Amino acid sequence: MSNSNSDTSVTAKGAPTKPTTATIWEFNDINEWEDATQVGFPNYYIDNDTLHMFTNANTWERTKIKSTATYTTGTYSWRVYVPEMGVGDCASIGAFLYNDDTHELDFEIGYGNTAIRQELDAASDDLIVYMTSQGNPFYSFQSKIKRNQWYTLSINLSLNNKKKYVATWKIDNQILTTKTLTYGSQTKFKIFCSVENLTFIGDHIPYTQNYALFDWVEFK
What SUPFAM superfamilies does the database record attribute to this sequence (predicted)? Predict the structure, then answer.
């Protein structure tokens, strides 16, 4: 992890710049994270400053880590490699914020079941990305994403004039969807990275080992 704290400085035109503060976990170690695996063994390791996570075939493994600290308003970003996932496999790459089961904001990426792939007219090299609020209110938006590429996934949490969170999901800085929530900064989140075998995101128990790579996570 590294903290970048820049003092106010003077630009070439003489105008002061605004201080910026970001916390970046670059995964040269797993400090300030803890295991959150629910089913199976903790299937992750650090290699070449990258977090590798996977689930095995013919299992319902749920491999996860979470931040030890909690956070509120700001921008949460994950740099994630999305590989070619098993056709029809119920396997999900997760980058999400969690307080409890009804206060959770997700990116979940997987092959997708037949119905959603047909609805979105997915090509053979497309996966499906779900951007979801699990409650308060429940909301889910689906889009297509190409496999075998690196992406920056971001969730921005701001407060409206009623002090409620406004959640904005972005991929590579492009806004995909936004939702106003019924709660605000009294609800704090832990940051999660995961690969999980979940029934909703495919047609059958995974036939292959599925994985994801996390280069870094940032909060600012």
Answer: Concanavalin A-like lectins/glucanases
Alpha-carbon gap, residue 99 to 178, rounded angstroms: 19
Provide the token pair at 107. 């990116």
What's at 109, amino acid-wise? I
List 53's β-bridge partners, or say none.
Answer: 44, 212
Longest dimension (CA), the chain: 62
Distance CA 103, CA 93 (A): 19
- State which residues form the domain around 100: 2-10+17-219
pTM over the 0.85 mark:
yes
Q: How far apart are CA 29 and CA 96, in angstroms?
A: 20
Q: Which residues contact 170 (CB under 8 A, 6 or more apart)?
A: 153, 154, 155, 156, 176
Helix, strand, coil fractions of the chain, as percent rounded to 5: 5, 55, 40
How many domains does the chain divide into?
A: 1
